[in-house]
Structure formats: structure tokens, C-alpha cells
């Protein structure tokens, strides 16, 4: 049935002038074509635009783009001479001579790099999110600051757009350029983790993954930082765009621990940025590093790792049985989240829901198991549906990191990282003063029930950022170029399947429309490629913060060298 309807859609699209895909989806209900799209000219069997054999080969939908090859004879990642894709003027893919002159310049300056003809290119070019596999014109692999400086000058002179890559986990593959034909400065060789035991400040190479960072500071001096749970995520993207985990209500975001950074600017100079040196750059890189330069080294203030963390998890059954049960249950949790006799800065938690009817809560408490059990646990169970087995367990700091990583170890390989996913995700920040209304929760519930009919698998994690004592919300936009300092909740809405983009957009729209009095925002670490630049700037930064960032951008990168589709000035 499905293939018949695809065939019918394919025939139609051949006859009508199809809309070029703006969100990487093709075929399906929207009937977008990939021909001329910035994502690649082939439409895969799953309904995504791309240019590799996964898109142009078996199952490729010829009604919505090319099949067999993306553009010309080559259908593999290996082509770096692809004709320009139809992006807007400021992001137009440069002519092949631009990448040629960049590589000549890199060779002259003895800067290591790879291009598509090199065997290592395909693995290096592969982003975490395989839905958006852009093809950089050149991937630079610097081993010194001077290499980064030279590469930035070479790329800028050649007219290439440049993005740094740390862990490569950008939801929108911005560290691959966010379009084909960019220069990627891959910081994989920058793997230093050096703890100064006297000050507690750790020097962190721009390519270090969070698991190796956590392991390094713990092993070197029993120290800890607040950061996300996935050990493969890189410090470069994560810490410059927020960085949340269940330590954040106590210790703040990963960003908040950055005391200084070594930054290569668009003119090739290397500067130290801190509260006392280049303070405006220091302000700006904590929120918009990708638009301002390449951070080769971070300096971060660690703290003593706690002896013990109390982990808790509560699954409930039957919450999705009715809209009223779902909405009332979440409203009860929201009531707890705002109650200072239950919640202080020592506790963080998130609610997980998915299209299988799961509704559970998990988090961390920097207090004892007995205090949690006597003061908090009962509140989570009171006036809620029946729960499944409740877990409340103490962990050593290191074992806690392993637990929340969901792996056997937090250590990650220094080269050849190979974990990937294919997905579309969005976020929604919910202002502290408003919280979520029952109408918004009703709308979330009703829309979520349509997932199976649309062949989408999704989950949402709704993390508590605000509430009594939250360290995250004690700072404001004077501290860093980061606007999300007054959220009660932050949603991550993550989906997979052919109709994911429209489904996830619809889910979020349903919530927003049901609560029109609220100005929702979006979280910078869950970059959403479905937004145009202006919308992204508004949702991530707001007007005042964006204006200050734009002024800084014009001062330090007047030619807009550091670019992705949503960067400052895009
Ligand atoms: C599996 C998974 C789990 C996650 N878990 C969490 C979580 O628990 N909490 C949370 O807050 N977020 C989480 N995230 C989101 C994550 O924090 C962001 O995707 C983050 O931006 C990825 O950082 P990266 O260095 O790996 O990404 P990259 O793709 O390398 O970089 C992302 C952006 O930052 C820029 N950038 C990277 N390094 C530098 C640098 N040195 N100098 C200048 N610009 C740079 C890049 O150019 C790009 O624009 C998760 C993501 C994934 C995929």
C-alpha cells in the first residue's frame, strides 16, 4: 500500500512543478522534490534528500529527484566538484577553484587536511546525524594553533565558509558546514585534558569528548564538571551552547564553567578571551562560538567530585490512558517543581514520554537516599497514578556518569568515532513565569496520539531547568551570550521515521498554539534546521542579545567567514 501511494505521488510530481525541499524531506504527503535542494538531489526510500548512495541507490524515489547519481557520474561522498546547490546568495557553494585555492594554500603552509579523494575523508565527513550528511570541500586536521590560524586565513582568502568541528553531534550537522562545500576545521587532534590541581582549572582541547573530559579530571584529581550525559558529545559545541545535565540546577551549565578560551579569529590571530582579556569575545563565544572563531583550548573551573549522588527513577503506568490523566499528572509534577519546601538546588529531574505510552521521571539528588526517601519521594507519588518499581540508589560520581551514559564506559576513542543516528529534533523552552498550561498539555497529549498513524517514532524529554534555587537561572545575558536563563522546563522533542519533520513540527506547534500568551524559545544545543535564520535568531537569542552579537560579529568577522545556515549574520 505504501509503495503504491509513493508511486502515485511520484507520477504526480513528474507532471506538476514540485516544491524544492527546504527541510530535507521528500515525497510523502508534502511531495517535495530534492532536485535543486541544499541537502542533495536524490530522494531516499525513507523520504530524505541526500547525495550519497544511501539516497541515490536502491529504493531511491525517482519521482522526487535524481537516482543513480546526485548530480553527475559520481554517486558517492567522494565528489568535491559538485555543482553549486541552490542555497541563498550569502551561502552559495563556491566554485571548485575556491576549494582548489584553499588546498593549495594549506599545502603551502603544511597544514594537514583531507579532501574527498582521500581514503580517510568519508569517515571524517560522516556527522552524528546521518540525516544531514553534508560534504565539506576540505577537512582540516590541525595539530597546532598555528595550523588553525593558517587554515582560517586560507579558507577565508579562498571564499570558503568555515565551521569548527568538535564532537560532531550537532543536530543540524553544522560542524559539517550546514551545507556542502565548506571548510571544516576538525579539532579531533586537540585532545589535551590537563588539570591544574592547585586552581582546579582544567585545560581542555577543542576536540575533547565529554566522556574523556570527565574521565580525565576525575582520574587526575577527583574533580567534576557539569555537562551532558552522552560521552561522545564534544566540549566545543556542547559547552559553547549551554550544556545541561542533572547536575545543572546545582552547578550550572557546562558553559558556566568556562573561565577562558584560546580563540582563532577570522583574521587568523589567536587571542585569549576571558573576563579580563577580550571580554566581549569571551561573552560572545559562550552562546555563539561557531560564528566568531575556532576555540582551540578551553579553560574550565572544575569542582570536587561528590562522594555520592542519589539517582532516582519513577515509572508510571496508565498515564496515557486518558488526556485528563496525562495532563493532571504533569501539572502535579509542575506543582512539585515550583514548591520550595520540596525542591531546592540539589535536585534535578526530567520527564520522559514516548509514543509507546512511557511516562517516567529520573534525576539526581545531591543529598542522601534517606533524605530523598523521607522528604521527596512521597511527594512524587502523592496524587499521581500507580507507579512501577521506584529506584532510589546511591552511586559514586564515576559510576553515576557511567549509569547516565547508558554504556559500559565513559571513555571514547580519540579517533574513528563511529556512533550515529538518523533523526530530526526540536526544542521548546518554557518560561518560568508561565509554566505549562493544562491546554498546552492537553494539546501535547492529543497530538502525540497521532504518531502511529503517521509512522513516526518519537520521544520527548522535558527537563527541569528552573524552580526554587536553580543555579542556571541565577545568571543572565550579561554573563554570556545565552538567553535561556528563565526557563522552568526545556523540551527536547526527538523523532525518527519518514514523516518526522512534519510530525515533530506539528507536535510543537500544537503546544505553542494552545498557550498563545507565552513566548516560547528554543535551546541552542538542540539546533533545529527547519528554522530560517531570522526565526532561529529570535528563538535562540531574542532581539536585544542578537543585536549585540551581530555588532560583535561585524567587528571580528566582517566577511562572515564563520558561517552555518543559522549563524550570527546568516
Ligand atoms: C546523543 C546526544 C546526546 C546529547 N545529550 C545532551 C545532554 O545531555 N545535554 C545537552 O545539553 N545537550 C546534549 N546533546 C546536544 C549537544 O550538546 C549538542 O549537539 C552539542 O552542540 C554537540 O557538541 P559537539 O561538539 O559534539 O558538536 P559539533 O557538531 O562538533 O559542533 C556543534 C557546533 O558548535 C561549533 N563548534 C564546535 N566546536 C567548536 C570550537 N572549538 N570553536 C568554535 N565553534 C565550535 C560547530 O561549528 C557547530 O556549529 C546531545 C546530543 C546528542 C547527539
UniProtKB/TrEMBL annotation:
Domain FAD-binding PCMH-type, residue spans: 132-305
Residue ranges, annotated region (Disordered): 78-103
Phosphoprotein recorded as keyword: no
Gene Ontology MF annotations: chitin binding; FAD binding; oxidoreductase activity
Organism (species): Pseudopithomyces chartarum
Signal peptide: 1-17
PANTHER family recorded: BINDING OXIDOREDUCTASE, PUTATIVE (AFU_ORTHOLOGUE AFUA_1G17690)-RELATED, FAD-BINDING PCMH-TYPE DOMAIN-CONTAINING PROTEIN
PROSITE patterns referenced in this protein's UniProt entry, alphabetically: CHIT_BIND_I_2, FAD_PCMH
Protein known as: Uncharacterized protein
Family to which this protein belongs: Belongs to the oxygen-dependent FAD-linked oxidoreductase family.
Gene3D superfamilies per UniProt: 3.30.465.10, 3.40.462.20, Endochitinase-like
InterPro entries listed in its UniProt record: BBE, Chitin-bd_1, Endochitinase-like_sf, FAD-bd_PCMH, FAD-bd_PCMH-like_sf, FAD-bd_PCMH_sub2, FAD-linked_Oxidoreductase, Oxid_FAD_bind_N
Domain of life: Eukaryota
SUPFAM superfamilies per UniProt: FAD-binding/transporter-associated domain-like, Plant lectins/antimicrobial peptides
Lineage: Eukaryota, Fungi, Dikarya, Ascomycota, Pezizomycotina
